Amino acid sequence: MSSVDRYPLPRDAWYVCAATAQLGETPFAAQIFEQKIMVMRNLDGQVFALQDRCPHRGVALSLGRLEQGQIACAYHGWRFGSDGDCAHIPSLDQARPIPAGIAVRRYPCVEQDGYVWAWMGEGAPEPATPRRIAGFAERSWLQGQLDLACEAMLPIENNLDICHPYFTHPGAHPQYFAVQAQGFRKLRYELKPDDQGLSVHLEGALSPLLRFDLPDRVTVSDGASFVVVLHHTPLSPGRCRQHWLLSREMAAGESSPGVTWTQAEPEIFAQDRRVLESAQLAYDAEGDGFERSIEADAPSLAVRRIVRWAAQGRTAAQRMRVSSRRVIEVRS
Predict the structure, then answer these.
(1) How many whole angstroms separate alpha carbon 245 and alpha carbon 160?
(2) 218-251 CB burial, b ≥16 within 10 A, e <16
(3) Which structural domains are found in the chain, ordered by start?
(4) How far from 36 is each of 58, 111, 150, 162, CA to CA, in Å?
């Protein structure tokens, strides 16, 4: 039995490669779409990202070290600049030039909003930089990540799911306590697609409760102080990495925002892991022909279409022509 990605995310896009907090003085090994990537800073403190494989004998460059602003392979010391070209081969006579074509793939990368982002497309990045995280510089954040044994679309859909929190997150989610106190209520939600993704609003509310942005971002907000920003980086078929940022407005007396990294897995994410990895096993074994959907699944089904169209190369204008607003009525 092998894992599959039923709805692969588009490759011509920016993806989180590493958190800024994860970068130190040594190279950092990352992975996106089965591609091994080495990330580090040069002598000027600028990040660069290269294929994590020396073209000499295949050793991971992330095992090496920075020398004269270049990454030196741990096996034979071949050095590569931030452009990916081989700059030095210690065993080669200094009078002889480095043979043409010795290079590793360079990934365009940007350090922004607490992350290093890598462009995974073949051409020049479009847009030139990743979409900003709204309000990042004005807030204090707790930051972490977790690897999931499921395709990236499963946590994306989960984080846009209106009805699962009471059942999946007992004692950990506001919806659980609301239902405990008031019972299930009939609510109306408005789905608003746009050229970047999809917003889900409580009908009449100005700020979205849930927001999806291509290629992999989900933002959850109460419209006031509470914000969760999640990115879902594909690793390989049936596996992904969820990068998360959790914020509340700065407390009284806090002078400046910042980011605090944690290795801990919050209980609410552990609860999600339990159901998502179980679901992946079913898709691996049976495909998705067993699925039955109802009106409450509209956000997930809409995002599946958006992702599929983006992966097929449809432009934002083409996606918008076949998308429309919709109001759904849900007990939650």
Answers:
(1) 16
(2) bbbbeeeeebbbbbbbbbebbbbbbbbbbbeeee
(3) 14-119 (2.102.10.10), 136-331 (3.90.380.10)
(4) 12, 19, 19, 35
Q: Give pLDDT, residue 251.
A: 58
pLDDT < 50 stretches in the chain: none
Q: C-alpha angle 63/64/70, rounded to 5°?
A: 145
162-166: long-range contacts (C-beta < 8 A, 24 or more apart)?
A: 162/189, 162/200, 162/210, 162/296, 162/299, 162/330, 162/332, 163/296, 163/330, 163/331, 163/332, 164/275, 166/332
User: Residue 138 has what pLDDT?
Assistant: 86
- Please identify which residue in the block is written with the tokens 């898709």: 283
DSSP string, 202-246: ETT-SS-SEEEETTTEEEEE-SSS-EEEEEEEEEETTEEEEEEEE
8 Å CB contact between 150 and 140: no
3-state secondary structure of 195: coil
309 contacts: CB under 8 Å, gap ≥ 6: 318, 319, 322
184-208 per-position pLDDT tens digit: 899 999 999 999 999 999 988 889 9
In the block, tokens 């080669």 appear at 92
CB 226 within 8 A of CB 142: no
